[in-house]
Amino acid sequence: MSTILPLTGNESGAEVMRQIAPDVVAAYPITPQTELMHRFADYVADGKVPTELILVESEHSAMSACVGASAAGARVMTATSSQGMALMWEILYIAAALRLPIVMPLVNRSLSAPINIHCDHSDSMGARDTGWLQLYCENCQEIYDTGIQAMKIAENKDVLLPVMVCYDGFILSHTVERVELLEDHEVKGFIGEHIADHPLLDVDNPVTYGPLDLQDFYFEHKRQEAEAMRNAKPVVLQVAEEYEVLSGRKYGLFEEYFSKDAEYIMVCLGSAAGTAKAAVDELRAAGENVGLLKLRVFRPFPAEELVAALADAKRIAVMDRADGVNSIGGPVFSEIRAALYGRSSAKISNYIYGLGGRDIDIEMMKSVFQDMKDGKYAEEAFYLGVRE
Amino acid sequence: MAIKLKELSHKKDLLAPGHRCCAGCGSILSVKEVMMAVDGPVVVSFATGCLEVATTIFPYTAWRVPYIHCAFENSASVMSGVEAAYQSLKKQGKIDKEIKFIAFGGDGGTYDIGLQALSGAMERGHDMLYVCYDNEAYMNTGIQRSSSTPRAAATSTSPAGTVLPGKTQFRKDLTKIMAAHGIPYVAQATPDRWRDLISKVKKALEIKGPKFINILSSCFRGWRCAPEKSIEVTKLAVQTRFWPLYEVEYGKWKLNYKPKEYVPIEEWLKTQRRFQHVLKPENKPLLEEIQKNVDQRWEELLQLCGESSPEVTPGN
Amino acid sequence: MPEKGWKELPIGGKILDAGNSIEYETGSWRTFRPVVDKKKCINCLRCWLLCPDSSIFVEDEKVMGYDYAYCKGCGICAEMCPVDAIEMVLETEKDTVEADERGIKVVQEEDPETG
Fold first, then answer.
1. Is A215 part of the contact surface with chain C (CB cutoff 8 Å)?
2. SS3 state of residue B256
3. B122: closest CA among B59, B174, B86, B191?
4. Domains and CATH numbers, chain A
5. What CATH number does residue B114 fall under?
6. What's the complex ipTM?
7. Which of A62, A333, B41, B102 is the residue whose CA sits 20 to 30 A from B122?
8. Percentage of chain B modeled with pLDDT above 90
9. Mind telling me how many Å the CA of A215 is from chain C's nearest CA?
């Protein structure tokens, strides 16, 4: 059984929250995340969820309250964007290191300055090494499906790490699409009851969270965290399999769109992958040997699987919607090139595109494939769509 | 509510020995007295600072109650989350115990970097008590000035030099700021007046909603006095009216102690070497300025408390 | 004692053994040790309340000496004692004072002639 609704990305995110019905949500307004919280606040106001909604005075306090609530033993969610997550930064690391399974839709938006409310991935990419899992969505259906899966992944006892569900601001957050929803009871059954690991509210078994950890133990605790991120990879796949049984929709670490036999492969994540698919369709129809690898799971980074999937490519173009501002290239590019080092003879080029919400269209995507075919290559990133 | 030490001595200490606070730490005594007022289950949160560091060095914890430290500026917002989790789980019938919540922070974590989080938590009305152990500087990082540091106090970032005589500003009156939030209970206390302190905490914990207690807590390292004087030194802060003991209950201001004699602020400053330069003859105008400020704040407080003005004239 | 490896420790840096700081004895920090004269002591328990290290034994509402395993020798107890019953003695000269292992001064028999 399923319900089909026309929903924006933010409304899909709000449906995820309604069906998960977290014990606590702490949030602060920021464009373009706002509508998600408006809708969820309606659910709280109408008593459709038992959630305590903490309307904090900053994102720093939003994440801090999430840490407190999760450590207390609650199932916890929040949502933010851009500057909001930048303000959370300090606590992102703490949430992960304290091993708290918080789920956070992150509505991708560029970072100041100059101030801009539109989509790019500089917010989430900056937080790529905070210890959070990062799952990227192409469309509103994926926002819904990924949000539900995220809670189950985060709470897996071999993981116990927070998860960011990243989706493009405005491009997805404010765009209405057809979204197929599971029934409430199906979601409840899928995610199961929340069982906290040594919660604070178990007052008969007092536990200390967040002690000073010096040279003799800090390293061991960080090693545990690294292991949890490694464990997350098979868990993501296992949860995706279970979700497929329930919904009929298939998810993996990435999606191979005509890339298995392609000579020229583009690697892309987020909503631009949809545009890239249209470009691939046109070029394939014209007999070109091109394909797309849409990355879904950026943390944990599926290096081994990517190496296998890209093994036969002649040329690879990696698309980054965030600049590293480092004279090397974007973050996705750095990871892909590092993963392929010594294991592929393909030339790998990097394209920075779409900063501050700059549009990317099918023609631009096709031009990237054309560049690969033409052998256009540079050590430094190409800027796609910027005025010279 | 008469507090008797003999009765308290039967209670289990919620804070175990073996912690690494300095010998003679005045601040842990404030915390210890607060915890003595607690009956029944409690969850504690701490801002980064001396007490957080010294009571929980992995793999050891001095806490016999559930405890969380997250970061420096968010003891109040972390506790907001803990309390909200409690309310939610209770509402859903997943928990049935009555639990109290106490968030602690030093003056750095409360007056300065944590003020926004504290203000937010109080405004939202969480059922929690926030306790500031105010030792008037960033002691954990090496005695840097905070907005609670008194005028003229020498700290490592406001040293008494040849041009600048210690901190150039007067201290922020945080207790009044908290009272302006209109929360049910706000109070000032010192560990020296333990009966007053413990009764205030007991009273606060009986009240539903957000509560704030500011406790002047010495740090002999920063205040530059002898460790054994850690408690004694806060006594004179009360006698000189630098740190009045008062409470604001549902908007009603009440002075808890009115010193019988006028003791000049100099008597308190004398006890701590962080003020030694103030007592030099050439700094007499500075001393007068400090006294004037103390008198003015005391006058304002008396008015708020509906007390008559003192009959004595200010100054020596 | 060999410390545990990362696979054996509880995750997230949590400490599950509440109050286990008692395994960490701080008595070696002490330069001066308090000793109490029970003839003077009025059992007001102020020292017990104001000991930062919870190192004063109280049994049946009476001061029963010091827990030297933790007492750091700060001297607050002696300073705050209203009847001057507590003396701070240099650790190196502790043998000059006759006291039991909990720091209770051994009561001198009063001379019936002069006492």
1. no
2. coil
3. B174
4. 2-247 (3.40.50.970), 254-384 (3.40.50.920)
5. 3.40.50.970
6. 0.97
7. B41
8. 96
9. 12
